[in-house]
Amino acid sequence: MKSLIDNARSFAATHVADPGRAESFRALEAGQSPETLFITCSDSRVVPALFTGASPGELFELRTAGNIVPEYRSDSPSGETATIEYAVRVLGVRDIVVCGHSHCGAVTAVVRGDDLSAVPAVQGWLERSVPADAPARAVASFTDDMAEAVQRHAVAQLETLRSYPCIQERLDQGALGLHAWYYEVHTGAVEVHRPESGPVSFGPL
To answer: Which Enzyme Commission number(s) are on file for it (predicted)?
Structure first.
């Protein structure tokens, strides 16, 4: 914690008060207008602003275990569905990115059928949010990074997003883009889903 505390103490003086940055930080007081909702994993190795170069106010972020998008249920709202709905209906984001990553513990657990009885909340989240036949459809070799399985999983989240009323409405208007990305934590490389090349085809940005 010490380094985090030290940086937090000096942040205002060394960054916000810097003449080159002060004006951009002051502008944040008026509100936010991000163009992109970035949905990714809670994994500490994944830092969206780092590999996208986004400045404060540019990304509206949603981080969940396994970058999972839960099904939309207005009768049982969750923080995740509320965040997505707010981003689309209130902030008016123009793009949504679902970004999976290499060495993802959640996807690995699902594909390999790991015993998650010691973490029942995690087990329930994955069982509720990941299709029961996901391991069979993943058809991925059990490599350390689980790249193919993670990519398929990210694309599957786009399908869940399409079931959200607010998203379907914006898609029908041609006012929203949905994208699946794959981030390799040990190289920093980013790939994007290219549906025109196949259902689960990824290539360089």
So the answer is: 4.2.1.1
Give 13's contacts (C-beta < 8 A, 6+ positions apart): none
Q: Cβ–Cβ contacts within 10 Å for residue 171, how many?
A: 15
Q: How far apart are CA 87 and CA 3, in angstroms?
A: 32
CB 100 within 8 A of CB 150: yes
The DSSP code sequence of the chain is: -HHHHHHHHHHIIIIITSHHHHHHHHHGGG----SEEEEEE--TT--HHHHH-PPTTSEEEEEEGGG--PPP-TTS--HHHHHHHIIIIIS--SEEEEEEETT-HHHHHHHHT---TTSHHHHHHHHHHS-TTHHHHH-----SS-HHHHHHHHHHHHHHHHTSHHHHHHHHTT--EEEEEEE-TTT--EEEE-GGG-TT-EEE-
The encoded tokens of residue 156 equal 């599957």
Q: b/e for 27-43, b at 16 or more Cβ within 10 A?
A: eeeeeeebebbbbbbeb
Each residue's pLDDT tens digit, 119-163: 999 999 998 776 555 554 544 445 667 898 899 999 999 999 999
Please state the rounded mean pLDDT for residues 102-114.
Answer: 90
Tell me the two tokens of residue 137. 């459809």
To the question of pTM greater than 0.70 for the whole model, the response is yes
